[in-house]
Amino acid sequence: MNRIEALGLSLLHRMDPERAHGLSLIALRAGLVPLPGPVTSPRLTVDLAGLALPNPLGLAAGYDKNAVALGPLARAGFGFLEVGAATPLPQPGNPRPRLFRLGEDRAAINRFGFNNQGAEAIATRLAARRRSPVPVGLNLGANKTSANRAADFARVLAVCGPHVDFATVNVSSPNTERLRDLQGAAALSALLAGVMQARAALPRPIPVFLKIAPDLTEEDLAQIAEVALASGLSGIIATNTTLAREGLRSAQRGEAGGLSGAPLFERSTRVLARLSQLTAGRLPLIGVGGISSAEEAWEKIRAGASALQIYTAMIYNGLSLVPGILHGLDAILEREGHASVATAAGSGRDRWL
């Protein structure tokens, strides 16, 4: 992190977290943030369910909810981007304040509640974007007041699917009441059937991933793995935020919402490793939760990840974290004798089981 970035983060941390979030997007769009451009090497390139990624590190959903900063984010070093979550209709989300920094824990709690401008507005921006080697995907959500939340995911895909490279079914946000109930085997099978039908109607097929919670039981994970394999999903993203609060020190640790950042690392990595075991290499897995260094990225890959995503760590380390992780990961792959991420994925899974 250079001095300018450190100063910028210091100023943002003096503001309300949600206001700081919005200002960071404005700064990106205004060209005020130095961007390294593509970060890649033969070892870092990844084939993720048919997507050619320049590197395995992606931006998780939730940062650019409305697809307003795709151009600069594609030049920030990421191998892929996920925007959203998008719902069929615009919605304001939950009342403010709804985002909290937990500085002592290098974490955050959010209870946004799928605040976004709606599928139509987001689709318009996605259609107008300048294409780049960095794939762009969309996180699919459901409206809080919807009479049929399961159908909402297919509706968003039908509207936005022609303009993205992949989509993610998000049934794991803790901030929409009873949304996580859709992770049950019967409900999930029905929901995914509708999504896959919508995908079949798109001008071109795109990969569809499923994002799951880190708070699932062993039985839940086994059922999800079975449903995912049977439904034709392209992969699983493990994991979303957690409702757990063990070991936190920050004053705002009791706020309601999903916890992300450093405290999520072990919990999410254990879920990832178990999914890797359950799916036995038949589905690519994307590791998310608590990554803030090349060494932690490496552990996710060893646990079974074919690709990775980050978000919360950027609150504390800035965008320069992205090339830092990737250059470090490339050096680790070389040191450990791996020609690619693919050959390393799952190589240390037993540690986490």
Write up what this structure looks like.
The chain is α/β, with parallel strands linked by helices. It has one domain: Aldolase class I (TIM Barrel). Helices cover 37% and strands 16% of the residues. An 8-stranded parallel barrel has the order 3-4-7-8-9-10-12-13, surrounded by 5 helices. A 3-stranded antiparallel sheet has the order 5-6-11, with no helix packed on it. The radius of gyration is 19 Å and the shape is globular. The two termini are 35 Å apart. The mean pLDDT is 95.
Question: Secondary-structure map with pairings?
Answer:
Blueprint: H1 3-12, H2 17-29, E1 46-48, E2 51-53, E3 57-59, H3 70-74, E4 80-86, E5 99-102, E6 107-110, H4 119-128, E7 136-140, H5 149-160, E8 166-170, H6 185-200, E9 208-212, H7 218-231, E10 235-238, E11 258-261, H8 265-279, E12 285-288, H9 294-303, E13 307-310, H10 313-317, H11 321-335, H12 341-344
Parallel strand pairs: 3-4, 3-13, 4-7, 7-8, 8-9, 9-10, 10-12, 12-13
Antiparallel strand pairs: 1-2, 5-6, 6-11
Helix pairs in contact: 5-6, 6-7, 7-8, 8-9, 9-11
